Each structure stands twice: as structure tokens, then as C-alpha cells.
Amino acid sequence: MENKETKNNFSAQSFFEENSIANFQDNNISEFKERLRDQVLQKYLTFEDNTNMEGNTQLPVPQVVFFRRKAFLLSLALCSIAVLILTVLMFISPGVIKNNQLIKGEVAYTEGIVRYRVIGKDWQEAMVNTVLEQGVEFQVVGSGKAILNLDDGSSVRLNENTSITLTSLDPGHIVITNDKGEVYSRVMKAERTFDVIANGITYRSMGTAYKTLCLDATDNLTDEESITKNEKLVTINAVEVYESKVRIIGMNTDNEIIVEQGNKYYVVNLDAPELTQKVLEVNLSEIKSDEFIMWNKGEDEKVQAFKSQMGVLFDIKAPTLNLASPMDGEETSSPTIMVSGSTDKDTKITVNSKAFHL
Q1: Distances from the Cα of 256 to the Cαs of 108, 247, 252, 273, in angstroms?
Q2: Dist CA 98 CA 101 (whole Å)
Q3: 223-231 LR contacts (CB < 8 Å, sep 24+)
Q4: pLDDT-based confidence at residue 96 (cuts at 50, 70, 90)
Q5: Exposed (0-12), middle (13-18) or buried (19+): which is 200, by Cβ within 10 Å?
Q6: Average per-residue pLDDT in the chain?
Q7: Rounded CA gap, 43 and 337, in Å?
Q8: High-pLDDT (> 90) share of the chain, %
Q9: In the chain, what is the greatest distance between 2 CA atoms, to the nearest angstrom?
Q10: What is the 3-class SS of the chain, one letter each residue?
Q11: pLDDT for position 351
Q12: Which residue has the higher pLDDT, 39 or 230?
């Protein structure tokens, strides 16, 4: 037998000694196998010296086996931890793992100063067709309005001095945070949850149309800085329902609060505390004089799916406006102009973002 080095650097001749293949006899084959087994056990399983015959340092096989088992158990533990972390993330934030499934919003209308920002970045001007994703803040600074259409067909509309955050755009659970101002939510009916959260109170859609209010002491200010103040005193936190129902979640009460169409509910109303935590009927004449709601009614009538589900807004007609002067198409170089005409009583008219109550 040619004397070759084995993988453990032992000489084949020295390893087998007198039991080399060339020396054994057929009648001693069983004895040879037994002695070979004993030597293998002795060399590999009871070898205590870490230096072999050639002077190379090696680990005994039992230690190698032990380390392999240890490495296997460690790998198994790490894999289990990774699976656990992924499972927790999926339950805590459904949109984190499958980000490509999140819906988006597209700006459809702007009036006045309308802007947005991604967390940690500067404010940018929002224009028609601007696409907004989950986590983005969107607001109207001072006088103006804005419309954000969602991929699921729903529409979120902002009144003047209003700010929202697109907290969750998961197609199974949409969450809009009404940080400040008035938000009109026209929800496309679907098998998913649609929430608007205002100052910790959740207004969950059970239909299609409602307005949430989160007003504070700075709402009478129209400068850009007033809307970005971190500290605020909420003076009104309420919901008005125009179609179907809204469930209120987050109140300290054992009773479930459901507000049906044609009603409103004040969670907070510092201006009129006696009206708080009661289901009150919406005064139709007040809706008619609410320029923001009447504007939303007109927007709803442009969409067939919403036009057929107007709720109490069906019975409300927009006030008439007869303009005597200036005439249509008339031009002037004067810095001021006289506007005259007629309209219904208690009507709110807006001219160049300035409101006038008649």
C-alpha cells in the first residue's frame, strides 16, 4: 500500500502498524477488523494531545462533534428569534413588512397655502397630482381648502387652518389623524376599517360621510406658525354625521357610543360644556350656512357613488346667489371694487378667501 497522508496528517503505515492491508491474511480478517476498530476508537475518540505526530495542532473528534452540535443549536435559536421578530412586526405594524401593498393618496384640489412633509424632512408645496404616502403630514395653512383622494376611492377634505397625518394607509385599516381643524371624510364603502383620530378619540366609519373637528385656542390665528405649535388646548373635539353612522372609541364609558346620520356629538366643547357627551340633532339650517359642508356637498355630487348616498344632505339646497355687479367679464384698474347682489338669509359668502356672513 502506498504511504499517503490522511486528512488528519497521520501516516497510513504508522496508523495501521502491522495491520497494513498488505500483511493481513484472509483467515485473520475478522481479527483485523476488530483491531482496526479498536485503533480508530483509540486514535479519534480518546486522543487527548492537541498536537499530532506531524506537529500540527488539531481538535479531537469528540470536541469537533460537540462544536458542530453547539453551532447547530445556536443557528436554530437565531432562526427562531428572527421568525418571532418578523411575526411581532406583522401584528404591530401591518404596513411595515408588505410596504408594496399600502395604498396612496393623491392631491386633487388645493386652495391657499397647502403643503406636506415626510417625517424628518422640510415642508414642501402640495400641488394637484402630488402623491402622498403613509406617515406624511398634510395641511392647509390659514384660509383655503384641500382634497386628498385615496386609492380605495375615499376622499379626505380639509378646511382652512387644518392639518392631518396619514397614520396608516394599510388597505385593511386606514387611519387618518385629525391633528387640527375640520376634516370631512367621504368614505367609499368596502370591507375594511376607516378611522379618523382626533386628540386620542377614534371616530370609526360605519357608512360614508362625516366631519370631525379638532379645534384649539390657536384656530383664530391664520399665520403659518400658529398651525405648527406643539402645545395646544383643544376647545372642541366633535363629530357630525351626514350619512349612515359613526362609532366613537376611546371614551371613558362602559356604553358604546354610536352617532347616526343627522346627529353630532361633542367629546369636548369648552365654549358650551352643557352640550358635551350628548347625542344632539344637527340643525339643517346650520348645515346650510356652513360653507365648508355645502362645498363638500357639491364635491360629493360629482361622484356617482357618493351622489346616491347623501344622507341628510339630500334635503339641503345650496343658497342662491344673484350677482348684480360687477358684471361677468368686467375689468377694472381700481384697487377696490363694489360687489352687490342678493342671497338667502344667514348665508356665508367667501371672496378671495375672506368670509362674510349675511
Answers
A1: 36, 8, 10, 21
A2: 6
A3: 223/142, 224/113, 224/141, 224/142, 226/161, 227/139, 227/141, 227/142, 227/161, 227/163, 227/180
A4: very low
A5: exposed
A6: 79
A7: 109
A8: 48
A9: 129
A10: CCCCECCCCCEHHHHHHHHCCCCCCHHHHHHHHHHHHHHHHHHHHCCCCCECCCCCECCCHHHHHHHHHHHHHHHHHHHHHHHHHHHHHHHHCHHHHCHHHCCCEEEEEEEEEEEEECCCCCCEECCCCCEECCCCEEEEEEEEEEEEEECCCCEEEECCCEEEEEEEEECCEEEEEEEEEEEEEECCCCCCEEEEEECCEEEEECCCEEEEEEEECCCCCCCHHHHHCCCCCEEEEEEEEEECEEEEECCCCCCCEEEECCEEEEEEECCCHHHECCEEECCHHHHHHCHHHHHHHHHHCCCHHHHCCCHHHHHCCCCCEEEEECCCCCCCCCCCCCCEEEECCCCEEEECCEEEEC
A11: 63
A12: 39
Quote the pLDDT of residue 95.
40
CB 193 within 8 A of CB 173: yes
CA distances from 91 to 53, 79, 85, 250, 305 (A): 59, 19, 10, 21, 33
Residue 7 pLDDT class (50, 70, 90 cuts)? very low
Please determine, for residue 59, whether its predicted confidence score (pLDDT) is greater than 60: no
Residue range 199-231, pLDDT digits in tens: 999 999 998 899 999 999 775 555 555 555 445
Q: Which CATH code fits 100-307?
A: 2.60.120.1440
Which residue is associated with the grid cell 392631518? 164
Confidence bin at 5 (pLDDT 50/70/90): very low
Using CA atoms, how far residue 71 sits from 45, 57, 78, in Å, is 20, 21, 11
Q: How far is CA 139 from CA 153, 227, 330, in A?
A: 20, 9, 35
Q: What is the residue type of 212?
A: T
Burial tier of 210 (Cβ tally within 10 Å: 0-12, 13-18, 19+):
buried
178-207: per-residue pLDDT in tens? 999 999 999 999 999 999 999 999 999 998
Q: Is the pLDDT of residue 41 over 50?
A: yes
